[in-house]
Specification:
94 residues; mainly beta
Length: 94
């Protein structure tokens, strides 16, 4: 369970984001096609503390998750799609 911290933002079509939080980071872009969107990028663990970093994307039709990145230095790629053109993207650490 992720409870230690993170950040959230509503993303728009064409956005490119670099998010840095305590213990990790995410880098992603948002593409839209019709009434759907795609969020793709990487998530990285930056702290040797046995915690992980993960991206959670809430689309109009529900939430999807990136793979967890851990231990420190691990980078995971993700490519998530769902309905709607304004997904909420959370970079989570815990």
């Amino acid at each position: 369970m992720f409870v230690l911290g993170g950040t959230a933002s509503a993303a728009s079509c064409g956005d490119v984001k670099d998010v840095y939080i305590r213990g990790g980071e995410s880098h992603y872009s948002v593409d839209c096609f019709g009434h759907n969107s795609r969020v793709s990028g990487t998530v990285k663990d930056t702290r040797a503390d046995k915690q992980c970093v993960q991206v959670r994307v809430v689309f109009a039709d529900g939430a999807k998750y990136s793979p967890r990145a851990c231990p420190s230095g691990t980078v995971k790629h993700f490519d998530l799609s769902g309905s709607g053109n304004r997904p909420h993207v959370y970079t989570r650490y815990g």
